Amino acid sequence: GQQVMQIPQYQHVQEGEDFTTYCNSSTTLSNIQWYKQRPGGHPVFLIQLVKSGEVKKQKRLTFQFGEAKKNSSLHITATQTTDVGTYFCAGPPRAGGTSYGKLTFGQGTILTVHP
Amino acid sequence: EAQVTQNPRYLITVTGKKLTVTCSQNMNHEYMSWYRQDPGLGLRQIYYSMNVEVTDKGDVPEGYKVSRKEKRNFPLILESPSPNQTSLYFCASSTSGRASEQFFGPGTRLTVL
């Protein structure tokens, strides 16, 4: 079945440093979704990328979707303590097949920011 | 307020005692799903439902059952819980299936002794 790998598993940074997490799928994706989970909270949707090579920005966050639609990255510039949490990617496979409702998440990257 | 609710939020139970975790959404979403979250393993999908009376297995369905008799509700049933089902459970819903934004409930922390 489809596998979605996310690296690194943990990232500790000093406030002000940059942070990047990478997401790689074993199959071509129809889109990539990114979520953030604050400590003790639930995952909250950040963004969705659909097009090959797409790049989207949300303030200090930059999201990229690979040309082959099998990988993605989230980059945070100049981290702040409010960025602390776990970042997940999720990628539904390209349409087709029998598991039309399955959604696979990556293992997540836990980000800690030291002030 | 648009939301997904889960009950209970916390539950400690014993092996073999049947339990149900309820999930309800007020957004008229057709797609609903259940996930479990374990350290190092991320979110793993247990079951999903494309619509009323339409359910299917996710990646880790063993030991769980679901039903979808109404559009708004999607309960998760553990008929004979075991300690390896100790986990944090999330219900989620979306308007357009797996290819769109998932709205998550607040989570249910389950401990099976």
Describe the secondary structure blueprint for this structure.
The complex is a heterodimer of chains A (115) and B (113).
Chain A: E1 4-7, E2 10-14, E3 19-25, E4 32-37, E5 44-49, E6 55-58, E7 61-65, E8 71-76, E9 85-90, E10 109-114
Parallel strand pairs in A: 2-10
Antiparallel strand pairs in A: 1-3, 3-8, 4-5, 4-9, 6-7, 7-8, 9-10
Chain B: E1 4-7, E2 10-13, E3 19-25, E4 31-38, E5 42-51, E6 54-57, E7 65-66, E8 76-78, E9 87-94, E10 103-104, E11 108-112
Parallel strand pairs in B: 2-11
Antiparallel strand pairs in B: 1-3, 3-8, 4-5, 4-9, 5-6, 7-8, 9-10, 9-11
Provide structural commentary.
The complex is a heterodimer of chains A (115) and B (113). With 115 residues, chain A is mainly β. Helices cover 0% and strands 48% of the residues of chain A. Chain A is built from no helices and 10 strands. A 5-stranded antiparallel beta sheet of chain A has the order 1-3-8-7-6, with no helix packed on it. A 5-stranded mixed beta sheet of chain A has the order 2-10-9-4-5, with no helix packed on it. The model of chain A has no long low-confidence stretch (mean pLDDT 94). By secondary structure, chain B is an all-beta fold. Chain B has no helices and 11 strands. Chain B is globular and about 35 Å long. The termini of chain B are far apart. The interface between A and B is medium-sized, with 26 and 28 residues.
